[in-house]
Write a structure and sequence with these properties.
InterPro entries: NA-bd_OB-fold (IPR012340), RFA1B/D_OB_1st (IPR003871). By secondary structure, the protein is α+β, with helices and mostly antiparallel strands. 14% of the residues lie in helices and 26% in strands. The chain is globular.
Length: 163
């Protein structure tokens, strides 16, 4: 069997840590597993963070990466135009399993992009939202942080009949 360029690179770097950037987004190998074996293994859905590991809203802070929260959309306000600019925004209140809430905001084209995907009362796994400290001037919900949902945010609806 002939080797591909990528397998030759991995083979030549097997004992090196120079290619660790390949691990981004796929996890970390067990301490007993060789890097090459980890990178070349078949994808296993049971290891997928989006499927089985969730944090609570209170545990997500600005600068955190790799988090996933299971939330229900408790409220979904209509889209509005900002007072000081022509920008449109829409606030959504998300609630986790402990009843903690966070305000998530969508802006401009993301309001339309997620219009049919984010439905009040439905449960979702959300990750990669931008987490910021709440600006007291615009606070409409209690809490120290707010999330911004954009095209980079991963959202997966949860089938509650299977959980």
């Amino acid at each position: 069997m002939s080797s591909t360029p990528s397998s030759r690179v991995i083979s030549s770097r097997e004992k090196s840590r120079e290619f660790l950037h390949f691990c981004i987004g796929i996890g970390n190998p067990l301490e007993t597993m060789a890097m090459k074996a980890f990178l070349l293994q078949k994808f296993n859905h049971s290891n997928n963070k989006m499927n089985n590991q969730y944090q609570l809203i209170k545990d997500v802070h600005p600068g955190d990466v790799g988090w996933t929260v299971k939330v229900t959309i408790a409220e979904k306000s209509p889209a509005r135009t900002a007072k000081k600019s022509p920008k449109k925004y829409q606030n959504i209140i998300l609630m986790d399993s402990e009843g903690s809430t966070v305000q998530a905001t969508l802006y401009d084209h993301n309001i339309i992009a997620f219009q049919d995907e984010l439905i009040q009362g439905k449960t979702y796994l959300i990750s990669n939202a931008l987490v910021k400290l709440t600006n007291l001037e615009y606070r409409s919900q209690s809490g120290d942080t707010k999330w911004t949902i954009s095209g980079k945010t991963r959202i997966q609806q949860v089938d509650e009949t299977q959980t």
